[in-house]
Design brief:
665 residues, mainly alpha, five-stranded parallel β-sheet, 26 helices, 9 strands, globular
Length: 665
């Protein structure tokens, strides 16, 4: 089936792009290298590059430009677009590495911990059918907040691209048949891009989960269409003289602007979805156009061998890196930013590069060059090769492949529906809700700065408080908790004001919000402290995790609390950084012993505040290790299989820092 398109004017040159070999555009691999490097940094340490997820949008623009250019070249050379041939070429390019990643990492995740298998059947189906984005939207999954990290969460962008590859050739044929001018075609593509970006901006609600607008092909296709518009524009002829003259400065400004966005544009901010990603896409288009200008320093930079090597393997690197990060983080838990943490991160990067290079050399390259049938025939012939060494290697490889496929199927069959952390949160949540409903009206008539007992404390927070319930109730009998999973500071303000209106807030209060989004509104936190008033003792618990906002959020909390003499910061970050083994498998929520450590941190903060305000020393009981061992029969949050820990919980789209890391772009 070939699509015939009748040109309405003499056929133009498809694109004035530099060519090498089979129409290769010089420097494009270098741009891909910058994109994958940004994604890697973002997922390895999001604090270092908060906007590194924009690397995905760089890929979108490059793909839109490249695919449109290839289709226009085929149209120019042959007068038609052979759709089956085009789609088979895409399948040969994409499927080998993708299938390998799926069948290798599912068994590896099974060995590392069953929490990585939550929803794995749906994830594998989405990965293999390039429908991950819509399946996850339909399932109600969240890219930004989750109680279990998703092994293939980064595949959403591959789904968007593959859906573009499926539909765009048909639409391009219609555009070319209906119009004659390259400028008109470019305007049509830009109109589609504008509609997509407008959809993202209008459908996004600040403070609400943004998964729908981030995953949606309709709301995140503007980068692809901007790339297509550039290809259409360049098909009309070479760059104008003025554009060639200003190419150098324009590229410099675009590169600086893109780097600035990657350094500052946090994924959870409203600006991200209301122009931020769009601006990054436009700047990327300028960088792509710069590769078509006369040779200069920029093109020489993009053609550096290390960048070309990385760019050529960027697809495999993107596929492998996130599952590898998750599996190794689950298998070797460490404290964020510790030496051990960086050792595991370095190992993750090394394993990713080795696997991607091996896949590129022995799997992707042969299939792309020879096709599926020929590659399978060659593999079958190797099984019966007269050369013993080759025959042994081929049979071992075939056996391993069969074993991996069977293991993947078994893992999908036994995969849990919920993570251990989610189970623990739900069990604890029921008890927290029950105790909160029994809260009695109290009257705080005058400031009492003595060390509070449990019956004098109200705790507000998110799932960190929920999973610490047992430790808090052991250390503070009679404590009242008002906490729920995935709450943020705006939710906290509503909860505090509601309790104040009821009159059920006791004389001592601790607050713990921000795990899912940091502290985005300093004034809001101050409003909460002001509402609680100067007569209450207030403890604000700081944050722990690999999300990009954690250091800034903790600095903001410390700055705010310093202005309130009756408040103090509880250093949960410092305490758990020294004892990461007390966290659950997600590296975010405290396990059973971690819950006692959390309670101890809160207790020490109240003691410090009381001593400061009264001058009277406070004597505390033993450390968390002195707490009684958890009894699963009495403690529904205990997980006997995990010993002293339960399992994972709040990530944040940090596809890599929990944002276990940060969600994969």
């Amino acid at each position: 089936m070939a699509t015939q398109v009748q040109e309405r004017r003499p056929r133009p040159v498809a694109a004035r792009a530099p060519r090498r070999g089979a129409g290769r555009i010089e420097g494009l691999d270098g741009l891909r290298a910058l994109a994958i490097a940004a994604v890697l940094v973002y997922h390895l340490r999001p604090e270092s590059l908060p906007g590194g997820y924009l690397g995905v949008d760089v890929f979108f623009v490059v793909s839109g430009f490249l695919i449109t250019t290839l289709l226009l070249r085929e149209l120019d050379d042959r007068g038609r677009i052979d759709l089956p041939r085009f789609w088979v070429r895409r399948a040969r390019r994409l499927l080998p590495a993708l299938v390998a990643v799926v069948v290798v990492t599912i068994p590896a995740a099974w060995l590392a911990g069953t929490d990585l298998l939550v929803g794995i059947g749906r994830q594998a189906l989405g990965a293999l059918t390039f429908s991950s984005n819509w399946l996850e939207i339909g399932a109600g999954s969240s890219y930004f907040t989750a109680t279990a990290p998703q092994l293939f969460v980064n595949f959403w962008s591959l789904a968007v691209e593959e859906q573009f590859y499926l539909l765009w050739p048909l639409l391009l044929a219609l555009v070319v048949a209906a119009t004659s001018a390259a400028r008109t075609r470019a305007r049509i593509a830009l109109t589609a891009a504008g509609a997509s970006a407008l959809g993202m901006a209008l459908l996004h609600t600040p403070g609400a989960d943004a998964t729908r607008v981030y995953y949606g092909t309709d709301t995140h296709a503007f980068g692809l269409m901007i790339g297509a518009a550039l290809a259409f524009a360049l098909a009309g002829g070479p760059l104008p003289a003025a554009a060639r003259r200003w190419a150098g400065p324009a590229v410099l400004v675009a590169l600086a602007g893109l780097v600035a966005l990657m350094l500052t544009l946090r994924q959870s901010g409203p600006l991200t979805f209301r122009g931020g990603i769009l601006l990054a896409s436009v700047l990327t288009a300028v960088l792509v156009a710069g590769l078509l200008a006369p040779a200069g320093p920029y093109r020489r930079l993009m053609r550096l061998r290390p960048l070309e090597w990385l760019g050529q393997r960027s697809y495999g690197i993107y596929l492998w890196h996130w599952p590898v990060i998750l599996v190794l983080a689950q298998a070797i838990p460490t404290a964020h930013d510790s030496a051990a943490h960086w050792g595991v991160r370095g190992l993750s990067l090394t394993v990713t590069l080795v696997l991607a290079a091996a896949s590129f050399r022995w799997l992707e390259g042969p299939v792309r060059e020879h096709g599926f049938r020929h590659s399978l025939r060659r593999a079958g012939a190797a099984l019966w090769s007269p050369l013993r060494g080759r025959r042994v290697v081929a049979r071992a490889g075939a056996g391993a492949a069969v074993a991996l496929v069977l293991a993947s199927g078994a893992a999908v069959a036994v995969a849990p529906e919920r993570s251990q952390t989610q189970i623990a949160i739900e069990a604890a949540q029921a008890e927290v809700d029950a105790s909160a409903e029994e809260a009695e009206v109290v009257e705080v008539v005058e400031a009492d700065r003595s060390m509070p007992t449990g019956e004098e404390i109200t705790g507000f927070g998110d799932s960190i408080v929920v999973t610490s319930k047992d430790g808090l109730e052991y250390r503070f009998p009679g404590i009242m908790l008002d906490a729920r999973s995935i709450l943020q500071w705006p939710d906290g303000e509503r909860a505090v004001r509601a309790r104040l209106a009821e009159g059920t807030v006791r004389r001592a209060v601790f607050l713990d919000y921000g795990t899912n989004a940091g502290v985005t509104d300093e004034a809001l936190v101050r409003r909460v402290l002001d509402a609680l008033g100067p007569d209450r003792m207030i403890v604000v618990v700081n944050l722990y995790g690999g999300s990009a906002w954690v250091p800034e959020a903790n600095a903001t909390l410390a700055r705010i609390v310093a202005d309130y003499p009756h408040a103090v910061v509880a250093d949960w970050h410092g305490a758990i950084s020294a004892r990461p083994e007390l966290l659950q498998a997600d590296g975010i929520h405290p396990g059973i012993e971690g819950a006692h450590l959390y309670a101890s941190v809160v207790e020490k903060a109240f003691a410090e505040l009381s001593e400061r305000l009264t001058g009277v020393p406070v004597t505390l009981p033993g450390e968390p290790g002195d707490a009684p061992a958890a009894n699963p029969a009495e403690n529904p949050t205990a997980n006997p299989a995990e010993g002293s820990t339960v399992s994972p919980g709040t990530g944040t789209g940090d596809p890599a820092g929990g944002e276990t890391a940060a969600p994969p772009g």
